[in-house]
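Pilot study result, target chain (201 residues):
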Amino acid sequence: MRYGIYGGSFDPVHLGHLLLAESCLREARLDRVIFVPTGTSPHKQQKNRPSGEVRVQMLELAIAGVPEFLISRFEIERDTVSYTIDTLKYFKGTLLEADLFLLIGADMYYDLPHWYKADEILELAIPVGVHRPGFPPPHVEVLSEVAGPKRLDLFREYMVEMPLIDISATRIRHHLAEGKSIRFQTPRAVEAFIDSHQLYR
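Predicted structure:
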C-alpha cells in the first residue's frame, strides 16, 4: 500500500487542500491519502482558533464519501509539539510494510532541508512536491544537502502539478472576520458548519 501523509492546520480545510490531495493521489499513484491536522505545531502556536477536534469535524464533512481519503488524530491527541519526524515514525510503526509519501506544496518543499531531522524524514518518506500558485515549481536539487544522489533520483519521479487555484485558509479567515462570503472556496458542508458555529468571526 502507498500512503500519502498530508499534514497541515486545515484551519479551515478548503478546496485547494482537497485538489492537492486528489492530484497527488492520482499522479503519484497512491492508494490512500491521510489528512493529519496539526495539534501543537512548532511553527503555529496561536490562540482563539478552532480546536483540533473542530478542525477534524470540518475535514470529515469535506471528505465524506471519498474512500481514498482518511483522517488521523495522531497529532491533535498529543500534548506536546508535533514534528513531522514523529508523525512519520508513528505511521511507519503502524502501517508496517506501507510506503510513505509526504505531500507538500512547493513553498514547504524549499524549506524542507531546514526541518527538524530532515535527513531522517527523507529516509522514512518520499516527498511529493506540488506546484502551487505564487511559488516556483519544486526542484529536487534543494534537498541535496539532506539526501543522497539515489534518493534524489527517486524523488524526481514525484513532482505533481495541481490546478493552480489561489485559495488560502488565511484569506478565508480574513473574509469571515470581515463578514464576506467564502462560497465556493470550501465545500458547502464546511461553509455551513462554519456559519452555524460562528467560527472565525
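One observation from the pilot: The radius of gyration is 17 Å. A full batch analysis is planned for the follow-on phase.
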